[in-house]
Automatic annotation (TrEMBL):
Pfam family, one: Pyr_redox_2
GO MF, one example: sulfide:quinone oxidoreductase activity
Names of the cofactor(s): FAD
Presence of the UniProt keyword Repeat in the record: no
Native organism taxonomy: Bacteria, Deltaproteobacteria, Bradymonadales, Lujinxingiaceae, Lujinxingia
FAD/NAD(P)-binding domain location: 5-120
The UniProt record lists the keyword Hydrolase: no
SUPFAM superfamilies for the chain: FAD/NAD(P)-binding domain (SSF51905)
Keywords, in A-Z order: FAD, Flavoprotein, Oxidoreductase, Quinone, Transit peptide
Protein name: Pyridine nucleotide-disulfide oxidoreductase
GO annotation, biological process: sulfide oxidation, using sulfide:quinone oxidoreductase
InterPro entries, per the entry: FAD/NAD-bd_sf, FAD/NAD-binding_dom, Sulphide_quinone_reductase
Length: 395
């Protein structure tokens, strides 16, 4: 096994695989390797609809061996430490690999342990989450078992992948309760650390209207810190110095606290927040010019979504190749991201915006209106684009 690669990629998620596909094709393909210990690759955007009973979770994954691009070496090991001055990465098994350029794209980690009392209770007594393959079925089970009471949907303090997902499952759950004739017996609560239902004004107004129409109880500036399963009680701290809020629940959908992986936080690549510190436009590391990053573990100040990665990776690849050739880095990413906000079965608001919160919409109609066509785009078209376009380096 060789120990040096033209390009070494840490992470076999959306960013790592799509970057590898672009770099390993063409007239003069590069010697590319991916460090990724996982057996499976997941299309996580569909987990909202798995939680709502539309798809099975098996529909959202493929073996990692099927998505590694042809000609790319798969190093089935977890990265552990970085030596960017020496252009090398050492794995948990103690092997060291060197590179000309490095792409760091390991995604986020889920910090379940930060919620007191949760350990051992996921999937029991109405506690559920769409945020992991192992837990997503618990949401559909909790919905089917719901009869009356509070249905709570949380949004934690800090950065999360797909910032719209915590409310997407709320909307689809609320619609499910309507369809089952249980809505009059349910109080639906959205409890968020944020200050509003959404951060972009155009879509915020549309969602506030839905909150009023569908009788959603909203609590902002609140972060889930404890679950008391025996009492079926959730405890939320105030981010504004107020008294803790205690809410009973029949169903509790938890969006866990999230952060960059620990091996990134403790590395020389990290900024003060633990993210891989890159220029927001070029995606090149601010201190190590042969290191690039895209996706959820990067410091890019935009929503962490697959749609953002689809726009980031072509810029990263263009600038990495420019670096190899001694040319200026001229490709620029302007913060585009997309959040397909599922607002029920067959309903979706397609939010698209940039670093400055300006709508950057793809269609010639008002995307702040709920539409079935946009729901169909999310449920049926985008997964195909992902598997057969983005991961192949074609879209």
């Amino acid at each position: 096994m060789t120990s040096h690669y033209d390009i070494l990629i840490v992470g076999g998620g959306a960013a790592g695989i799509s970057a590898a596909a672009r770099l390993s094709s063409g007239d003069a393909p590069l010697h590319v390797a991916i460090l990724e210990p996982a057996d499976w690759h997941y299309y996580q955007p569909l987990w909202t609809l798995v939680g709502g009973g539309v798809f099975t979770r098996e529909h959202t994954r493929k073996p990692m061996s099927e998505v590694i691009p042809p000609g790319v070496t798969w190093l089935k090991e977890p990265a552990a430490t970085f030596a960017p001055d020496a252009h090398s990465v050492t794995t948990a098994e103690g092997r060291t690999y060197s590179y000309d350029q490095l792409i760091v794209a390991p995604g986020l980690q889920l910090d379940w342990h930060k919620i007191k009392g949760l350990d051992g209770h996921m999937g029991q007594g109405g506690i559920c989450s769409n945020y992991a393959y192992d837990t997503v079925n618990s949401t559909w089970e909790a919905l089917q078992n719901f009869r009356a009471g509070n249905a709570l949907f949380t949004f934690p303090r800090g950065t999360v992948k797909c910032g719209g997902a915590p409310q997407k499952i709320m909307w689809i759950s609320e619609h499910y309760l309507q369809k089952q004739g249980l809505r009059d017996r349910a109080d639906v609560h959205f409890v968020s650390s944020g200050g509003a239902i959404f951060g972009v004004e155009k879509y915020k107004k549309a969602l506030q209207k839905l909150v009023a129409e569908r009788d959603i109880h909203t609590h902002f500036g609140r972060n889930l810190i404890e679950v008391r399963p025996d009492e079926k009680l959730a405890v939320f701290e105030s981010l504004h110095g107020e008294a803790p809020l205690e809410l009973p629940y029949e169903m509790l959908h938890i969006t866990p606290p999230q952060s960059a992986p620990d091996f990134i936080k403790t590395s020389p690549l990290a900024d003060a927040g633990g993210w891989v510190e890159v220029d927001r436009h070029t995606l090149q590391h601010t201190r190590f010019p042969d290191v690039f990053s895209a996706g959820d573990a990067s410091s890019l100040p935009t929503a962490k979504t697959g749609a953002a990665i689809r726009k980031q990776v072509p810029v990263l690849v263009a600038n990495l190749l420019a670096r190899r050739q001694g040319r200026p880095l001229t490709a620029a990413y302007h913060g585009y991201t997309s959040c397909p906000l599922v607002t029920g079965y067959g309903r979706l608001i397609l939010a698209e915006f940039d670093y400055d919160g300006n709508p950057v919409e793809s269609f010639p109609f008002d995307q702040a209106q709920e539409r079935y066509s946009m729901y169909a785009l999310k449920a049926y078209m985008l997964p195909e684009m992902y598997w057969h376009g983005m991961l192949k380096g074609r879209a």
